[in-house]
Here is the input.
Amino acid sequence: MSNTKIDIIIAGGGLAGLSLALQLHNKNSDFKIVVIEKNHFPVPDTTAKVGESTVEIGSHYLTDVLGLKEHFQRHHLKKHGLRCFFGKGTKDYSQYDELGVSELFGIPTYQIERGVLENHLYHLLVSKGVVIADGTLPIDIQIGDKHHTVTCEKGGETTSYTGRWIIDAAGRQKLLKSKLNLHKKSGHKGNAVFFRVDKKIVIDEWSDSENWQQRLVEPGTRWLSTNHLMGPGYWVWIIPLGSGATSFGIVMDDQALAESKIESYDDALQWLRNEQPICADSLIGAKVLDFKVIKDYSYSCKQMYSDQGWAVTGEAGGFPDPFYSPGSDFIAIGNTFITDLIEKESRGDDIRIDSLLFHKFYDSFFENTLSLYKGQYGGFGDRRMMSIKLVWDYTYYWGVLTLLFFTDSICDIELMRELNPNLLKAQKLNEKMQGLLNERAQKRLVLATNSVFMDQFLVPCLNQFNQVLKTKDIDVTQALASNLAVMEKVVAYFEDMLTDNPSSEISKEEFAILGHYRQSVLA
Here is the structure.
């Protein structure tokens, strides 16, 4: 059996592992890296993986941090925001309530054709001298202190790699997690049915109403959004792919799943006929490319990084929930921590404190993200609750988490310590808001539809946060303090709305922040 000495072993050649290899190579081209992947490249362009939609952190990581902007502009669809629809039964979608934007805020995000992206990363890494051991199955992992060995099998032959670092990026195989007993329950339970079809689904064709079409500054672009069809305890995603295929998912809490009785594609289609008939009609004549059911999909991890030279990234570590598409965000955050640790360790720095703090930071980001989902699926069919929820969740995401990532703050330990008092205040505000949303969600309310368009582009604070993120040389300390002042006003305002006791009068200052939005929500 041959043995190859290497600096960094990455187990898993999906999006997490390949992007980490590129980030490490870009940081230090002298690193000797091997990526071990059980599948063969090239993979199918439309491949059976969840995670086709990106939001701001993931998009910024892939395009700006990794330098893949040209690839995304040429080969992937520009996303037109997240859009939710509330209603049931009618044959005209203009009768449904709609929550989304009339125009884009300006920071580009994308709908990813995962196979196309992973094949591009594969060819790019090979051209840079990174070893991709595809069609290779890890059969044994030995963990030491900066001395790790992975034994692999390929085509009946056995080989091994020994390196100072080993990274588990193998998704739900959870190689290191199982080896080191790192599994941790998330406290959130959700279930997903997902499939892809060889048909372009254009949601703009679901109504002939001219008024409905003209709601958007660019009519005919709804289909480029991550469209969500909402109901009590469930949501359906519709994501367009660059190949012309479309990704569908039906995501449910336990109550909705039990009532749905979905086990197969035919079951899913029948459920859609009952709950979302227009969507079901759009699938007539479509060929199903793949179909999966994953129950109880959410989980966490006891430890993500070790000063002994191992780490976990992507779904190998944790997965909160697919709503808001946070998967590529956690790849971005995790890979950035890992790259920083490996670079410091290669210089001879002591990384014991860094590895502990990075896990603490990651865990805080993860727990705050989990709080957006725990106990709230019952309210996903409630137009009033969701209109408030999305604005608050965007406020926290753009005003805090995205700000930290865009300013390269998350690896700056001294800066993070300086920001900690305001970060804790923001976390407390988020906990309060999620608690209020949880209380309302338990009622599983469904309001009568009224053809309402809740235009998030009219919310001044969301435009304000986006303008900050687009600014060069952001003073993160000042920006976070300013964002926090806005968030405090938002919480006070939304608290009234969630308790069904909106103030009859609001101050001019409060109106300047959310006045337009109040009119659209209460319509």
About this structure: The chain has a mean pLDDT of 93. The chain is about 40% helix and 20% strand.
